[in-house]
């Protein structure tokens, strides 16, 4: 069998041929995610890959080589595949691993989607530059971490605070000014596309087009928990993500600011007539949205390499999560994002990994056709 190994971005690593026992080995220079492709034309005529998926995307940790399995099966005389217990066991082990990875990805998407949903709920703005806020958080943490020399934990805290301040400044000096001038929502949405392009290429100029990683926690040996193998940082990151989502949810339900934000989302005019400072609430939401998006970017940078397009790459997934859960609903963003994360990861059991994000687009189309308000959204009536 011929095996082709490349980096996650497609750079060639090595091409090898398995031995008589079907085993093979490829040394890699550094930890990270890789793409392993089995050339199906090199298989014997009476053997095929179970499920038809000839691509794997393992993550290699320092001191812990990754094991890549291709479940093969013989063709019967009638052309039907023959199954066995070992193949079933490998399938369910991979399904458990992908479910864990999907939950991890879903929580990261939920952090980013939460800010987007809150901004939409209070202002009606669909912010296409929100992906760049995710990138901003990761790059700020990288700058504090490798540029200044801070440990990643204080660097991440400073990045979240700085991104929150920049979120406030965005509304104070830009979006708020457009609202006061009576700029329509469609026009502001188009402006957000321009802002996204400007920030994206500004990041390219300042950061460069290469991929980088944080100075700490980028090469942890994996640990085995039942059928799941992951680095300790993944478990800690998921705990932090859950904690932040729970705290924000409680704040929206129990605090005066949270109640005011929900009132503004329901009816800004009525909220203003009730004595609520709508502009102040919106700026708090922008501050919170910027900070949470930055945290999402840092968590994303922990699970993969940093690059100037990382926010753009998950923007479709963010919109899919928000749309599935219900635009403008914080808890809907959480539910929808976890479903999207699980769906696109587990789908690689049957579809090539390159096509997994297509599932997010399918989710968008299906939801908009059959339930435009989303899972936790509510129908609007005009008049």
CATH classification class of the largest domain: Mainly Alpha
Contiguous runs where pLDDT drops below 50 for at least 5 residues:
none
The fraction of residues assigned to DSSP E strands is 5-15%
Helix content: 55-70%
**Estimated radius of gyration:** 23 Å
Count of extended strands: 9
Mean pLDDT: 81
End-to-end separation in angstroms reads 66 Å
Number of helices: 11
Oligomer: single chain
Structural class: alpha+beta
Q: Helices and strands, in N-to-C order? A: EEEEEEEHHHHEEHHHHHHH
Largest sheet: 5 strands, antiparallel
Summed up, the domain count is 2
CATH topology grouping of the largest domain? ABC transporter involved in vitamin B12 uptake, BtuC
What is the overall silhouette? elongated
CATH architecture of the largest domain: Orthogonal Bundle
Entry keywords:
single chain, 383 residues, alpha+beta, ABC transporter involved in vitamin B12 uptake, BtuC, 2 domains, 5-stranded antiparallel beta sheet, two-stranded antiparallel sheet, 11 helices
Overview of this protein structure:
The protein is an alpha+beta fold. The protein has 2 domains: 2-74; 94-370, Orthogonal Bundle (ABC transporter involved in vitamin B12 uptake, BtuC), CATH 1.10.3470. Helix content is 58%, strand content 9%. The protein is built from 11 helices and 9 strands. The protein has helices spanning 85-123, 130-148, 152-180, 185-207, 232-254, 256-266, 268-273, 278-303, 310-325, 330-346, 358-370; strands at residues 2-7, 12-17, 32-39, 47-49, 55-56, 59-60, 72-74, 223-225, 228-230. Strands 1, 2, 3, 5 and 6 form a 5-stranded antiparallel sheet that branches. It has a two-stranded antiparallel ribbon with strand order 4-7. The protein has a two-stranded antiparallel sheet with strand order 8-9. Helix 1 packs antiparallel against helix 10 (330-346), helix 3 (152-180) runs antiparallel to helix 8 (278-303) and helix 9 (310-325) runs parallel beside helix 11 (358-370). The N and C termini lie far apart (66 Å).
